[in-house]
Amino acid sequence: MSSKPAGSAPKDTLLRVMAENAKPDQFPAGLTAEDIKRMYEGMILIRAYDERQKNLQRSGRIGFCVTSTGEEAVQVGTSHALEANDWVYPYYRQYGIMLYRGVPLNVLANHLYGNEGDLAKGRQMPAHYTHRDTHFVSSSSVIGTHLIHAAGTAMAAKYKKDPSVTVTYIGDGGTSSNDFHSAMTFAGVFKPPMVLFIVNNQYAISLPVAKQCGAETLHSKGVGYGVPAIRVDGNDVFAVYQASREAYARARAGEGPTLIELFTYRAGPHSSSDDPTRYRGNEAESWLSEDKDPIARARRYMQSLGIWTEAYENQVWEEARTRINLATSEAEATAEPSWDSLFEDVYAELPPALIRQRDELIEKESGFERQHEGEFPL
Ligand SMILES: Cc1ncc(C[n+]2csc(CCOP(=O)(O)OP(=O)(O)O)c2C)c(N)n1
C-alpha cells in the first residue's frame, strides 16, 4: 500500500502563468494592458492600506488590525473575474476585495475606527468588514461558519435561476473546521454555483500547514467530496485570475462548484496581536523578495511587456497613499457611535424593558460626562 494519503496529489500540479524569470512577449490569460495595470494598481492599493493600518495600530490610534501583505494577488486575481452581482463570503483577510470592487476607502477606514460612519456601527470586531451593495458579506470570527452560508446563497441562486456565482474563502487552518466539511459535502451533492478558495498562506497563526493536515496538498480534499479541484500559484496574479475565470464560467454554466487552493504566504503577522518571529524567525523576508512577492513578480512581467515605468510606479504609490491617508484622517475625526445606537436594529419597536435600560444608560452617561468634563481629553 502506498504511504501517500488517498486523494493527495503531487506538489508539481501548481498552475502558473508567470514562470520564474519569465520574459513574456504577450499579454497573459486574455488580459489587456488596461486590465493588467488595474490589477497591479489594485495590489498596490491593498499593500498601501496595510502599511497605513499597521502604522495606525502601532502608534495607538486604532486598537487592532489584520493585514494581508503578500496575499494581494489572491484578492485581486479572484476579484478581477467577478461580475457585479456575484456574492463574496470572505474571512477576515480578504478586505482587499472590497477595495478592488470600488468600495470607497472611507467605508473601510470608518470600520477601522468603529466610528459613527462604520457600517457595523462599531459593534463588530475590527477587520470584519461588510458592504451590502457589493455583496461583500460580513465574516464571522468563528472560523468556517461562513462557508455554509455561502453554499446556501449559491443554492438559492440555482433555485432562482439567477446567474450569480458565490465565492468564498477559507484559510489552510480553516479547512480543518467542521463547517468546511459541511459546505464541501453540500457542494459535492447539490452542485450549487460556487467557488471555494483555500488561501493556503502556510500558517494558522503559529501552526504550519504540515502540522495541520496530513495530505500533501489541500486541494486534494476536493476528491473526497466529488468537487473538482485545482492548485494555483497564489502569488501569480494572472494564474489566480485564469483559474478563477474558468471556475466562475463553469459555475455559471450549471457545471457546479470548484475548489481552488491558492498557494501563497502570509508575510505579515496573523494580526496586530501576533509576533511571527517567535515561531518562524525571519523566514517571511524571503517571501517579499523579487522572486516571490506577488507585486514584484507582476512588475517584472509588466516591464517585459513594456507597460511599466518608474514614474508610473511612483505615481501609483503616491495616489494610493494620499487617498488612504485622507480616508483615515477623516475617520479619525468622525465621532464615535452614540450610546443609544446600541439599542437599534434588533427590534422594530423597542420593548418597554429596553426603553427603560436605554434611558437609564443615556442618563448615566450624560451625568458622567457632565461630572468629568474635560478630564479625558482624546
Ligand atoms: C472555530 C474557531 N477555532 C479557532 C479560532 C481561533 N483562530 C482564529 S484565526 C485562527 C487561525 C486561522 O488560520 P487560517 O485558517 O490558516 O487563516 P489565516 O489566518 O492564516 O489567513 C484561529 C485558530 C476561531 N476563531 N474559530
Written description of the protein model:
This protein has about 375 residues and is of the alpha/beta class. The protein has 2 domains: about 10-330, Rossmann fold, CATH 3.40.50.970; about 340-370. The chain has 12 helices and 8 strands. The chain has helices at about 35-60, 70-80, 95-100, 105-115, 145-160, 180-190, 220-225, 235-250, 275-280, 295-305, 310-330, 350-370; strands spanning about 15, 85-90, 165-170, 195-200, 205, 205-210, 230-235, 260-265. Strands 1-7-8-4-3-2 form a 6-stranded parallel β-sheet, sandwiched between helices. β3 (about 165-170), α6 (about 180-190) and β4 form a beta-alpha-beta unit. α1 packs across α2, α2 runs parallel beside α8 and α5 packs parallel to α6. It is globular, with a radius of gyration of 22 Å. The structure holds thiamine diphosphate. Thiamine diphosphate binds near residues 172, 201 and 270. The site of thiamine diphosphate (TPP) has 16 residues, from β5.
Would you summarize the structure shown here?
This protein is α/β, with parallel strands linked by helices and 378 residues long.
Number of domains: 2
Shape: globular
Quickly give the CATH architecture of the largest domain: 3-Layer(aba) Sandwich
Return the CATH topology of the largest domain. Answer: Rossmann fold
Strand elements, count: 8
Number of helices: 12
Helix content range: 40-55%
Q: What is the string of helix and strand elements?
A: EHHEHHHEHEEEHEHEHHHH
- Give the neighbour order of strands across the main sheet: 1-7-8-4-3-2
Ligands bound, unique? thiamine diphosphate
CATH secondary-structure class of the largest domain: Alpha Beta
The rounded Rg comes to: 22 Å
Please state the structural category: alpha/beta
* Unreliable residue runs: 1-9
Q: N- to C-terminal separation?
A: 67 Å
Mean pLDDT: 93
> Biggest β-sheet, characterized?
6 strands, parallel
Quick one: CATH superfamily of the largest domain?
Thiamin diphosphate (ThDP)-binding fold, Pyr/PP domains
